[in-house]
Amino acid sequence: MPSVLLGLAVLAFWLYSLFDVITTPEKETRNLPKILWVLVIVLVPLVGSVFWLLLGRPLRSRPLRMPGRSIMDVGEPPRGPDDDPDFLRDLDRRMRDDD
């Protein structure tokens, strides 16, 4: 049983590294071109994954972005319609007009 768990952990680590290489932009990989990193990880799974994390992965993490918003947008977070008093007022008015 422990060997099965160890094997699953190695497989998960390998898959994580492989998908991380694939989703990293070509310009941000270090020391080798992206295609060579993929080959290293596929041909030498455990060692290649460790090498990717230590030597190939970008030094800074990529910032998460919301579609349509820049990273510099600071201010009020997006609100749902039920949090917007203007929307609720307009909805109430429209419901009374329908009656």
From TrEMBL:
<feature type="region of interest" description="Disordered">
    <location>
        <begin position="67"/>
        <end position="99"/>
    </location>
</feature>
<dbReference type="InterPro" id="IPR027379">
    <property type="entry name" value="CLS_N"/>
</dbReference>
<keyword id="KW-1133">Transmembrane helix</keyword>
<dbReference type="Pfam" id="PF13396">
    <property type="entry name" value="PLDc_N"/>
</dbReference>
<feature type="transmembrane region" description="Helical">
    <location>
        <begin position="35"/>
        <end position="55"/>
    </location>
</feature>
<keyword id="KW-1003">Cell membrane</keyword>
<keyword id="KW-0472">Membrane</keyword>
<dbReference type="GO" id="GO:0005886">
    <property type="term" value="C:plasma membrane"/>
</dbReference>
<protein>
    <recommendedName>
        <fullName>Cardiolipin synthase N-terminal domain-containing protein</fullName>
    </recommendedName>
</protein>
<keyword id="KW-0812">Transmembrane</keyword>
<feature type="domain" description="Cardiolipin synthase N-terminal">
    <location>
        <begin position="12"/>
        <end position="57"/>
    </location>
</feature>
<feature type="compositionally biased region" description="Basic and acidic residues">
    <location>
        <begin position="79"/>
        <end position="99"/>
    </location>
</feature>
